[in-house]
């Protein structure tokens, strides 16, 4: 039986090693994802392809041309969703908040499906989805203003209403869509990294998001204790809330634009990291980004290998994992 002293020292040790362990796990997951598939790649081949960049035949074309962009897109979007989820949970002071709760995903879905119905592709498709997400963000932020400012409750209720409206619009478009575009619409709505946009924008957004959010960690720690406490200690609460909302919305919009609507990553990952590491945002934010990248990358690897050569939408697997975890967390919270 462990002594109380050993129990007390376990958490600080875990907090110290959390980021290195998550980073190592992410690198190993990237290597695993690049190796698995219909064309197996040995560790030696993978090392040669990634270090020399020389001609490695079919294996090199598959790794560099097909798997690497998909791997980077999945990892970047997982990090974006988890980071946005951590920010939303601070903004709403609710550990079970989700980055999609304010209707950003719904707006992006409407924009993307409109682009599909119009036959748009490439950059025009991405811009349409991003425009839908930003429109939903503007609606929520504009409608939530009232007496007392944009309170967490008012933001939450406004986001739920806007999300419901976007869901109705999506259902209508699916009903009237022709059979040729219906399958692509459904896969996009469930999240499909196989047709992900180029990962550069998502990677840049994740890097900028982490660099912007980590300096705000001290103020976020104070905000989590309540507006009055934060204001007393000199935190500009209104400006900070606006910044959090804009950052989280932008991160979610980029992720949804890249891989589609992938649920539960932004809900489950920050909450699990909070249970394991505590509520210090200086550690929680980068840990959530790494853990989210790791989770979505593993889910995408499973999605394309479980029933190969057919592929599953990655959003299906994250939902299958997220639902029982969410119920467990909800039961634990009760």
Features:
disordered N terminus, 334 residues, 14 helices, globular, ABC transporter involved in vitamin B12 uptake, BtuC
Structural class: mainly alpha
CATH superfamily: ABC transporter involved in vitamin B12 uptake, BtuC
Which series of helices and strands comes N to C? HHHHHHHHHHHHHH
Note the beta-strand portion.
Answer: under 5%
CATH architecture: Orthogonal Bundle
Number of helices: 14
- Low-confidence stretches are 1-10
Q: For this structure, what is the CATH class? A: Mainly Alpha
What is the strand tally? 0
Quick structural overview:
This protein has 334 residues and is an all-alpha fold.
Care to describe what's here?
- The chain has 334 residues and is mainly alpha-helical.
- It has a single domain, classed as ABC transporter involved in vitamin B12 uptake, BtuC (Orthogonal Bundle).
- It has 14 helices and no strands.
- Helix 1 crosses helix 3 and helix 1 packs across helix 13.
- The two termini are 29 Å apart.
- The N terminus is likely disordered.
SSE inventory with pairings:
Elements: H1 4-35, H2 43-52, H3 57-91, H4 104-117, H5 123-143, H6 152-176, H7 179-190, H8 200-213, H9 217-223, H10 227-232, H11 237-259, H12 265-277, H13 281-305, H14 314-333
Helix pairs in contact: 1-3, 1-13, 2-3, 3-8, 3-11, 3-12, 3-13, 4-5, 4-6, 4-7, 4-11, 5-6, 5-11, 8-11, 12-13, 12-14, 13-14
